[in-house]
Specification:
It contains four helices and seven strands; from the N terminus they run E-H-E-H-E-E-E-E-H-E-H. The protein is of the alpha+beta class.
Length: 154
């Protein structure tokens, strides 16, 4: 099993939205960075766990835990000319962008970016690296355990 951190703007998809979805599962769409796409396409597997991170909001931070519920598949928004994620260079025969399904396991207390930065144990975490803007990053097992302990029991 691998661990991940997946960022979403809560006004687009929040942890509450995933919890309210049928079977508590949604498609993770709109990733338009090749490295993040490659993480989904090449490395994510069903059963992997991810921190659901609210970004670009008043108080960014970890807001829940999700499980990867599918292998990567072509992101349908790349083919939709009305979508803000449309990519005219993508075709069904040669898709450029991938998505996965995620299933909400639980909402957590908000573990803010400020609080995450306060722990020396997380100094090497990719999320906290200067200039880090990736929407999907791997989380090391030790980082996962440390953060999960601070989020409290299920």
């Amino acid at each position: 099993m691998r661990y991940w951190l997946m960022k979403s703007e809560p006004d687009e998809v929040s942890v509450d939205d995933v919890l309210a979805a049928p079977e508590r599962t949604v498609a993770w769409f709109g990733v338009r960075n090749y490295q993040a796409r490659n993480f989904m396409r090449d490395d994510m597997r069903p059963g992997d766990l991810a921190f659901f991170y609210h970004s670009s909001c008043a108080e960014p931070g970890i807001a829940g835990i999700v499980e990867i519920a599918s292998l990567a598949y072509p992101d349908a928004t790349q083919f939709d000319a009305h979508s803000r994620y449309y990519d005219p260079k993508a075709t069904p025969a040669q898709p450029r962008w991938s998505g996965v399904d995620v299933k909400a396991l639980r909402k957590t207390r908000l573990l803010s970016l400020k609080e995450l930065r306060s722990y020396p144990e997380l100094a090497g975490m990719r999320l906290l690296a200067k200039g880090s803007r990736l929407s999907i990053t791997p989380v090391e097992p030790g980082e996962w355990a440390f953060i999960a302990q601070r989020l409290g029991p299920d």
